[in-house]
Amino acid sequence: MTLAVSVLAAALATCACPAAAQDWAAPITAVQKSLADAGVSIGGGVTGFGQGMAFGDGLYGVPFGGKADFLLGLDGGRLGLWNGFTVSAHLEQEFGQNETERADGPIIPLNTALAFPLLGGTTTDLALTVTQAFGSNFSVSLGKFNMLDAAAKTPIMGGGGETTFWNTGFAAPISGVTPPYIIGGLFALKTAPATFSLLIYDPRNAQALGVIEHPFADGVTFSLSATVPLAIGGLPGFHTLRAAYSTQQGFDLEDVPQLLLPPGSARDLRSMQGYYFGSYMIDQYFWRDTDNPARGWGPFAQVALSDANPNPIAGSGFVGLGGSTPFTGRLDDRWGVGWFKYVFSPALKASATAVGASLNDESGVEAYYDAKIADHIRFGPDAQLIWPGTPGKSTALFLGLRGRLVF
Length: 407
What we know:
The chain is α+β, with helices and mostly antiparallel strands. A hairpin with a 3-residue loop joins strand 4 (124-134) and strand 5 (138-146). It has helices spanning 2-15, 18-37, 99-102, 112-115, 147-151, 168-171, 209-213, 346-354; strands spanning 40-55, 64-75, 85-96, 124-134, 138-146, 181-190, 195-201, 221-229, 237-251, 271-284, 287-288, 296-306, 313-324, 334-344, 362-374, 377-387, 396-406. The protein has 8 helices and 17 strands.
């Protein structure tokens, strides 16, 4: 808690003295550059969050928590090995409290950065991958992947929960077929009409040691995506189609009521073979900085459907606006506003009704602003209005502040 408060306080204090922050960071930047020239890249940061419920059903108050990240990259060519070979590692450590654990009504996590790896039973996790590029258009990556890092690469919306949207509905959209940490391989191919990615992985969450020791013991998941660039009015846009299939067996959601039978009762719980998932996403720039193509803003949207049994999520969708600000002097700030909805499996809803319970779909609206206070320091507010999926819970408003020290 103390560290999270300190990060937020440092961000505020730096508003009055940005030059001091840049002087303090100069030695770190110099060391990073020297190491990068030798083939070793290091980075990371500490992100602090304060988030609480402004109105709704549940606990009030503002818990503080955060996450520390350490990133390491090795360039085989510069290290004297061979060209195209790289190693990437991401170590993360959570601390403090977060509103996701306290909130009664919402089912989708309110704070992605603090939900993972915590919801998997740990506060620490290490992702490690090796990549071999064959020319500039084809590469193969193997190892343990942090899928929040993959989500963060979305051009306009961003993801991961530490720099853009907080809610998992945007920051790491839930498919029901891809856990937050996976063991597997990624094959990426760039062609003139599209960029293709084939991901083959163990369908279980790789936070469990048994998954690493005995990979693919319960099946395998195949995920193929194609991203097609399409310019409108001279501004770039990206259309991404994804299809996924898992051979893993899942519990038949229509059998949920039988779980309540007394121990020893005769019951035959069925399983369903295979998970299916498909999605379509679009990012389209409405403005792009001619001096820095990485800056820009525009709309984004996604629709997704699944088999709905055994996948507990039948479908989802979101739409919004976001990206970099076009304001003079604030080009490095980011902002976003959007709406999302998750539709839960009809079989799961029917089973819940059969045992005297119920389950509603969940939707929400989120708006955030992430300001560059000085080099290496960012700070900004977040607001989420949630119509929770938990029955009997009223609409709730959650407000938060995020501060990030980046190195």
